[in-house]
Amino acid sequence: MLSDAFGREVSGVRVSLTDRCNFDCVYCHNEGLGDTRGPQEPQDDEMTADEVVRFLDVAAEYDVGKVKFTGGEPMLREDLEEIVRRTPDSMEISVTTNGTFLPGRAEALADAGVVRVNVSQDAVDPEAFAEITQSGAYDRVVEGVDAALDAGLAPVKLNMVVFEGTAGYVPEMVDRVAERDGLQLQLIEYMPEIAGNPEWAIDIERVHGWLAEQADRVEHREMHDRRRYFVDGGMVEIVDPVGNETFCANCHRVRVTHDGKLKGCLNRGDDHRSMGEMTRDEIRETFEETVANRVPYYGEYLVEDDDGEWVVNEKYLPAPTAGDD
Ligand SMILES: Nc1nc2c(ncn2[C@@H]2O[C@H](COP(=O)(O)OP(=O)(O)OP(=O)(O)O)[C@@H](O)[C@H]2O)c(=O)[nH]1
Ligand SMILES: C[S@@+](CC[C@H](N)C(=O)[O-])C[C@H]1O[C@@H](n2cnc3c(N)ncnc32)[C@H](O)[C@@H]1O
Ligand code: SF4
Ligand code: SF4
């Protein structure tokens, strides 16, 4: 397994299959590309299934054991099932989706080899949902969650971005996952870096504090040192990257953009390496370079030396953790 200069092993990849989407969520960072709601028709620049699989084959050679397919909306790709089927057997496959295409396709995804899905659902109130996603698809998403559970794609994590527009719905969402076996809740701190509107952010520590009061127990997940609260039989995980040095110190994934560029960090736009028409050997080299150049985003990992060059801040070496859960 490859490690970066901070000792962070790369055990997973997140592959964006498209930047298209049928929603237009007001907060969307589009996996680092920044523009909400990409074009609706298939684009020439999307990786083909062959290109995705070629990259995954190379990643598997480096013992990358997990792949997350995301987007844009990855289920807009009609060849998603094919890509999943052709993903190396050694990889655990999950998908993050807005859920609208799960009815009618969840079973096929499970048959192809997806083990679990994360479904975005920011509110239990259809009107609020419509305002946030700019869509009228609330019922369809709820149906999609049911379809995923019926197909055995469990646990289904409900992804909820916590910001000014949703914070009031957190207690209802916590109740919802407690009521239903197979559901978990993932509260994602709003990230304004790429999406803009920093005034929408709320203090995620208040949510931690509230959950700590409700929880019977709290666990730490190895990836990102995320906290998991167990409330009335339900599990609530908080994804809180913003300004969080510990989160980045435990980041074990390399990303691929829909147009086939490798990148070491969600928030960086200056480290993209295009795989384009590369041979496998070239992809290997590019993957190694990408890992070697990964730098945690939050924290003073790079400092200026006496000659004005940016160098690794030695106080962070070796990195605190390795591995993934
Ligand atoms: N800054 C940052 N944000 C992340 C990272 N991982 C996840 N997030 C945020 O959390 C969102 C939801 O991630 P998901 O695609 O559901 O997957 P996940 O929670 O990371 O992975 P699993 O819990 O293993 O399913 C992402 O779109 C980001 O907004 C990360 O490494 N860095
Ligand atoms: C970019 S979407 C792609 C997958 C799919 N379309 C979906 O919505 O699940 C992946 C996740 O990123 C989250 N997300 C988008 N913009 C965000 C932001 N500015 N801050 C935090 N999370 C964000 C969404 O809620 C979603 O759960
Ligand atoms: S559904 Fe996902 S990709 Fe589409 S706009 Fe919403 S968060 Fe962004
Ligand atoms: S380094 Fe930090 S901000 Fe960048 S992808 Fe990893 S956890 Fe996210």
From TrEMBL:
Q: Give the cofactor binding note.
A: Binds 2 [4Fe-4S] clusters. Binds 1 [4Fe-4S] cluster coordinated with 3 cysteines and an exchangeable S-adenosyl-L-methionine and 1 [4Fe-4S] cluster coordinated with 3 cysteines and the GTP-derived substrate.
Residues annotated to bind [4Fe-4S] cluster 1: 21, 25, 28
Q: Which UniProt keywords apply?
A: 4Fe-4S, GTP-binding, Iron, Iron-sulfur, Lyase, Metal-binding, Molybdenum cofactor biosynthesis, Nucleotide-binding, S-adenosyl-L-methionine
Q: Name one Pfam family in it.
A: Radical_SAM
- Locate the residues binding [4Fe-4S] cluster 2: 248, 251, 265
Instruction: Specify the pathway.
Output: Cofactor biosynthesis; molybdopterin biosynthesis
- InterPro entries per record: Aldolase_TIM, Elp3/MiaA/NifB-like_rSAM, MoaA-like, MoaA_arc, MoaA_NifB_PqqE_Fe-S-bd_CS, MoaA_twitch, MoCo_biosynth_MoaA/MoaC, rSAM
What name does this protein carry?
Answer: Probable GTP 3',8-cyclase
Tell me which species this is from.
Answer: Halorubellus litoreus
